[in-house]
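haha ok so turns out i had the wrong file open the whole time. this is the CORRECT one, sorry everyone. sequence first:
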Amino acid sequence: MSSSLRAAALAAAAASLAFATGCSTTISTLQPAETVGRNKWHVGVAQDVSIPVGRVTSVTSTGATTAAKILADSSYKPTDQDRREILDAGLGLMLNPPGTTPDVMVRYGFVDGFDAGVRYSGTQVHLDAKAQFLTTADGWAGSVSIGYSRHLYSSTVFDVLEVLDIISFQRHNLELPVQFGHRLGDYGHLWMGAKYIGSYYRMDSALAGVGLPSTAGLMHYVGLNSGIALGYKYVFAMAELTAMEMIAKPEVFGQPVDIGGLVIMPAVGVMARFP
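then structure:
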């Protein structure tokens, strides 16, 4: 493929990134407020869709355009501004890429009012424990959770930025959701709540074989979610909507860049609670 055609393809990939990426950050909860119950299991399978509608989209678009310019002319020497724009885009894609993510969860109830579980969502492994602090006779419940998740690096998000080489990436999350919900008899669950996620990240990269400054820092998500599960007794179809504000201002080449903004994540799936 010629350099001009390759650059055009890269620009087209940037335009369609939101529909093609498969390793987005999971902010959904995908479980009722009520714990699963003593010696019982919860198994869930779902699909998350991450839709960032904040400033990260413009940062990513600018970086992809700059990458296309570099690929179109092999003799072009990237400027410091070019390096900054591509590194900004790389951070934005790694910290909050758009796209779809498969989600699998398994939980176990150790005692009534307390359960714990493990969750895998493409590029993220998650562990958490949940305690129920509210139970009413008419089916209302309230619970609080604490969770830890670690990201597994995937180069998929950088297919659109071919000139950027990621040497290493790490991200660790602390998650604190509070949920309230209502059991619909044998027919399902309703839930809603608030959630905080705090993250530490670090990324080392290179552009055209030249090392770029390491970037590390903290970022935060704050938001709300609501969901419903409908079925009978043990198996339920579920849908959930999460909206969170991402607060992230990493320093790139000595200057802060704002890649935060609103992130919306709808999700659909199936869950089972047994025996």
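DSSP finds four helices and 13 strands in the chain.
again sry for the mixup
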